[in-house]
Amino acid sequence: xxxxxxxxxxxxxxxxxxxxxxxxxxxxxxxxxxxxxxxxxxxxxxxxxxxxxxxxxxxxxxxxxxxxxxxxxxxxxxxxxxxxxxxxxxxxxxxxxxxxxxxxxxxxxxxxxxxxxxxxxxxxxxxxxxxxxxxxxxxxxxxxxxxxxxxxxxxxxxxxxxxxxxxxxxxxxxxxxxxxxxxxxxxxxxxxxxxxxxxxxxxxxxxxxxxxxxxxxxxxxxxxxxxxxxxxxxxxxxxxxxxxxxxxxxxxxxxxxxxxxxxxxxxxxxxxxxxxxxxxxxxxxxxxxxxxxxxxxxxxxxxxxxxxxxxxxxxxxxxxxxxxxxxxxxxxxxxxxxxxxxxxxxxxxxx
Length: 351
Ligand code: GDD
Ligand code: MG
Fold this sequence. Notes:
Blueprint (H helix, E strand, L loop, with lengths): L1 E5 L20 E2 L2 E2 H9 L7 E6 L3 H8 L8 E6 L5 H8 L8 E5 L2 E3 L3 H10 L4 E7 L7 E5 L5 E6 L10 E9 L15 H11 L4 E5 L4 E3 L3 H12 L15 E3 L4 E2 L4 E2 L3 E3 L4 E2 L4 E2 L3 E3 L4 E2 L4 E3 L2 E2 L4 E2 L4 E3 L2 E2 L4 E2 L4 E2 L4 E2 L4 E2 L6
Parallel strand pairs: 1-4, 1-6, 4-5, 8-12, 14-17, 15-18, 16-19, 17-20, 18-21, 19-22, 20-23, 21-24, 22-25, 23-26, 24-27, 25-28, 26-29, 27-30
Antiparallel strand pairs: 2-3, 6-11, 7-13, 8-11, 9-10
Helix pairs in contact: 3-5
The structure holds guanosine-5'-diphosphate-alpha-D-mannose (GDD) and magnesium ion.
């Protein structure tokens, strides 16, 4: 059995972070995002190959994952010549499929029971099975209505507020039967959400819903990307590093924290980081590899990517700093700011 990870989007809502780091490999704590999805696929031993469906900056992604040996699964890269949309991308990978295929949107962080989803798909002899999750506001997602027997009766992508009839949305995880791909035209931009799913309903094919009430988030906006980190540090999405209780200070071997620096968990400090005396790293902060925090600097609730330098007495609150940024002395970066790689803030600047 194969799995396709749809990871070819441009990640526009995460710009400027995604200009040099495509969304599938933005760091989550200390690992590229797709690591979490690939680990999830290990739940189903039958899945023996992951097809990474790429379009935007495929090289960067291939460099990280190689042939998959390091993740314990075979990885095949399928790169579209131009973006074909979510269904076009699946069609483009069709020649590599045999049996039922698991498809994931390459930006959802979740701990679903994938084995149970595959079992439901088989028990119901479904043509397609879709995972749904409840959200407060479905407008940014695909709204999915179901009947009492768990069949999908309506799929409406990005509904307007007056079109909302339920709270269940498409979680971006499917099991599909390749014999339904006949309706997707070749080499044409085509949408799973707007065309393929509605066609299953129109033709009366068995289209089954699996409702997931556990942790689920789409990391595709800065707010959600930060929220995912908070949720991990609060233990809502379990990873070993934060499993020992609240307010863990997780520091990698080889991080150097001066004795008079103040570190308040939950937070993560990666290898090669240097936090100098009198500096403060507050809750919900993540400092990537080789970040330097100079004397008296303050970082709180912020994600700081590798190689960034935070100058003396600088302050960063609830912000995201890309790679290799340079904040001068007493520079201030305020709530909600997102700085792209190599941004420079001169001494005493306020943002
Ligand atoms: N290969 C390839 N080619 N992948 C693509 C393309 C493409 O042309 N377009 C998008 N993708 C990938 C993206 O990289 C992403 O991982 C996934 O498909 C979904 O695209 P998004 O751009 O993130 O869509 P969305 O978040 O607005 O909506 C989708 O996800 C929601 C759940 O998070 C839809 O599937 C909604 O129905 C769903 O609720
Ligand atoms: Mg998305």
